[in-house]
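Hi R.,

Quick one: here's the Rhodanese-related sulfurtransferase sequence you asked about.
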Amino acid sequence: MYQSITMPEFEQLWKKTPVKLVDVREADEYAHAHVDGAISMPLSGLEDTVDQLDKDENYYVMCLSGARSMAACQYLASKGYKVTNVMGGISAWRGEVV
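And here's the predicted structure, written out as tokens:
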């Protein structure tokens, strides 16, 4: 099971606390614009890269609008990872991107 967080809630958390953010958009989308500090792990290759994550850490998962991150959270949670879906994705992000 995983949790969800709204973008306004996530933005407040991001400003206050260092958190691990996983961006599951494809590499070209990530290269175009992403939240500074986000880890790029495209959903299409998640099964091959999941072992790079630490099961003792909490991860927030973001995509463009929230659908791919929801799928990623379902997969990661089934593998024992602690994840939270960032609803709205980068489309709803009001902060800076790099």
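Residues 54 and 83 are 11 Å apart (CA to CA).

Cheers,
M.
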